[in-house]
Design a protein that fits this description.
Blueprint lengths: L13 E5 L22 H9 L12 E2 L2 H9 L14 E8 L4 E7 L5 H10 L15 E2 L8 E7 L4 E6 L11 H12 L7 E6 L2 E2 L29 E14 L5 E11 L4 H11 L16 E7 L4 E7 L11 H14 L4 E6 L17 E2 L10
Parallel strand pairs: 7-8, 13-14
Antiparallel strand pairs: 1-10, 2-15, 3-4, 3-5, 6-7, 8-9, 10-11, 12-13, 14-15
Helix pairs in contact: 5-6
């Protein structure tokens, strides 16, 4: 049953330093990779300091009726929120068995807004109060014993201020950036929250305790997530975020956002989709969602807020039986990098593109409220 969309905000933000990325490991369709030098600390610092709005993460796909597309257009491109049936679900960013952060929609107790925000952060605590609600293959990245003492949100600025107890400081230094990503992407997935500021035992953090990651300004999704481990320094680049597929230990498919750097000046959406075709890095546990013969022909933003993505792939000449992972990754990537929440896909010129989930992606589909609703 179709779920209505959350409001989608802004696009990926530019970074001043670039990294050309290469092909990755064999998985769904297979690929090869080459590694280059690790990213310099300046890349991280720059991304942490770039301000701007990014899109909200959404989830399991559903077809959108034409009248819904008309509603989007008449509402100035802003989509309404609904989904009362899944009102207790909350999307949090957990660490998977590959060491990557992935959005996981958990069933947490219904509560008021402040308690809900505290609970979503508590779900990030290793061996915490909601550990039993976390699916197999995932875990919270905050150190055990961390308590969320308070969360306040300034409605006018969209700034969320979080206060942890001192156990927050007992994290592993290697997890420092991922901790910031998990907190930031979890909270900014909630409507109205654009930035995050951290406090510990009544004192504002100006930098992280162990590796000194700067916190002199609020964190936003412009910091990226799951940055590439193998990169090369170039000037003038932009950040885009794409969704690849992975499988849990139980064989359940889920989607993982990965930030990539592309040369500045490119069309953001085309660059993101081409990174999707390029594939993940080797050894990170992510799967190729495109075949090696996939070609991006065109990306067009049309009326009613619908983005049309045209692909060529001889493996699916008739547009039937296309892997769901391939099509859903396209829709999630489009939703992440544009304000347009609706996507329709053309394959080899065919207007009907049927996935293995029997959904026709040739018609506008949305990325609804929750991503990765995984069984326990």
């Amino acid at each position: 049953m179709m779920k209505s969309m959350k409001q989608i905000r802004g696009a990926s933000v530019a970074c001043l330093l670039a990294v050309p990325l290469v092909l990755s490991s064999c998985s769904l369709f297979g690929s090869e990779s080459a590694s280059v030098d690790p990213p310099p600390s300046e890349v991280e610092a720059q991304m942490l300091q770039v301000s701007g709005e990014t899109t909200l993460d959404t989830g399991v796909l559903g077809p959108v009726a034409e009248e819904d597309a008309q509603t989007v257009a008449s509402d100035g491109g802003k989509l309404s929120s609904g989904n009362s049936a899944s009102g207790s679900l909350t999307t949090v960013f957990l660490k998977d068995d590959n060491g990557l952060l992935a959005p996981v929609s958990l069933s947490l107790p219904k509560s008021d807004e402040t308690t809900m925000l505290k609970d979503s952060l508590t779900a990030l605590v290793s061996k915490g109060a909601y550990a039993s609600s976390v699916p197999n293959g995932f875990q919270g990245i905050l150190p055990a014993g961390t308590e969320v003492k308070n969360v306040t949100v300034d409605k006018s600025s969209g700034l969320a201020v979080i206060e942890f107890n001192k156990n927050f400081n007992a994290y592993d230094a290697a997890d420092e950036r991922e901790i910031l990503e998990a907190i930031t992407w979890t909270l900014t997935g909630e409507s109205g929250i654009k930035g995050v500021q951290l406090w510990v035992d009544g004192k504002k953090l100006t930098e992280m305790p162990l590796k000194g990651t700067p916190l002199d300004r609020p964190l936003s999704r412009s910091m990226g997530i799951n940055l590439p481990k193998h990169t090369q320094l170039l000037m003038n680049s932009s950040a885009v975020t794409v969704y690849f597929s992975a499988a849990s230990p139980d064989g359940i498919q889920y989607y993982v956002p990965v930030t990539r750097f592309v040369p500045a000046g490119q069309d953001t959406l085309k660059a993101a989709l081409n990174e999707l075709i390029t594939g993940p890095e080797s050894g990170d546990g992510l799967e190729m969602v495109m075949t090696q013969g996939t070609v991006l022909d065109a990306v067009e933003a049309g009326q009613n807020g619908v983005v049309t993505v045209s692909l060529t792939d001889d493996m699916f000449a008739d547009g039937k039986g296309v892997p769901t992972e391939m099509l859903e990754s396209v829709v999630l990537t489009v939703a992440q990098n544009t304000e347009d929440a609706l996507v329709q896909i053309r394959m080899n010129g065919k207007d009907t593109v049927t996935g293995t989930d029997n959904i026709d992606y040739g018609k506008p589909v949305s990325a609804p409220d929750y991503v990765n609703e995984l069984p326990l």
